[in-house]
Specification:
The chain is mostly helical. Helices cover 76% and strands 0% of the residues.
Length: 106
């Protein structure tokens, strides 16, 4: 049995749910960032799945281009977020919970 479109959509939905759960429950900035990455990867799975199971060659390429664009945006978002986390760590010499962090001026 080969996996069809519903199988990929279920995997994407589970990844999305785990990402939302991680964003909502984690207090650490790195944990929240991991949850956001899971959410973006679930969107990539859906883009590729719909592109693979669509009818024309043009829509297959479009799905892959959307997924590649999403991967580039996720890498940029990860770089900026990790730079902010490192700046906070340098200022406070510890990892701070998201609730404690109110401004970056401190």
């Amino acid at each position: 049995m080969t996996p069809g479109l519903p199988h990929f959509l279920i995997v994407g939905a589970f990844l999305f749910a785990f990402g939302i759960l991680c964003v909502m429950t984690r207090r650490n900035a790195v944990g929240v960032l991991m949850g956001v990455e899971l959410i973006l990867n679930s969107a990539n799975i859906n883009f590729i799945a719909f592109a693979h199971f669509s009818g024309t060659a043009q829509t297959r390429i479009d799905g892959h281009v959307f997924a590649l664009f999403c991967i580039v945006l996720a890498a940029l978002e990860c770089a900026v977020a990790l730079a902010i986390v490192m700046a906070i760590y340098r200022n406070f010499n510890k990892l701070i919970d998201m609730e404690e962090l109110t401004t970056l001026r401190e």
